[in-house]
Design a protein that fits this description.
- This protein is of the alpha/beta class and 329 residues long.
- The chain is 34% helix and 12% strand.
- The chain is built from twelve helices and eleven strands.
- The strands form two sheets. A six-stranded parallel sheet has the order 8-7-6-9-10-11, sandwiched between helices.
- The longest helix has 21 residues.
Amino acid sequence: MLVLRALGLGDLLAGVPALRALRRAYPAYELVLAGPAELAPVAAATGAVDRVLPAAEPGRAVPRALDWTGPPPDVAVDLHGNGPPSHRLLAGLRPRRLLAFAHPGTPEVEGPPWYPEEHERDRWCRLLRAYGIAADPADLRLPHPGGPSPAPGAVVLHPGAGAPSRCWPVARYASVAEALRARGRRVVVTGGADEGDLVARLAKRAHLPDTDVFGGGLPYERLSALVADARAVVSGDTGIAHLAVAHGTPSVTLFGPVPPSRWGPPPGTRHRALWHPGPDGDPHGHETDPALLRIPADEVLDALDALDALDVLHALDAPDPPDAPEEAP
């Protein structure tokens, strides 16, 4: 089985419920994911993918070709998009069966309709259900990583995103960091491989020590451990927000230009999606979206306080641990 999802970290994590549904529906198949090679550790952590076929193009485009060898795949699944480019890429491998959304440009694909406003996790599960495959959008948790966190219990700030339009201003992240440090919290900042300058600017404004700066793109295993054992994660609508959800780590995600109804965390108490409604903007734009600019630093701090209060309440409601056995005389 070949599954196309040649996108980023957040996209892969949003597709985990669909990948696991395919794994359950086809337990005897080798499940090959066509996606970025650097996401192979993430794919392995899902427990659904057997191997990754490296495939990626700049700007989230459909790959021009797939380095597929051997006989045609028995089943091909388009989890990348809904248009002729991804349909034809997979159809060109002559799979016995192609699962994909319908599109007027490829009338030979008799799939379900595409709804632009649908949440990403729900979309791909609905696609599979249309083909008789049970899929649960809530099946998205990842196991705890094996390695230790480089900063256990810290609040993680991640100022970057896939485009400037989804980046909250560095000055506001710095205000949050300074307020948290004044309360005795450890604050660390992370960034992708090409976000060194952004991370450095935030670290300088917030007066963070070098030990609390993780720029340059942490390897997935370290990033996963950092997020899994964090006190909370604060970021825009980007991959690390989905990683926090996957590990059940409390998170505050700042939305704009796309609303949380399409990419936000699942309902529950451990995640806060901050969003000031307005016209949709360009998720690939070059300037910070106005919706993000409407979120002040105090609103982020209030959301973190609410998550802290809930953690205290959960601890109070938890059953007492069993009594320790008495020591022998």
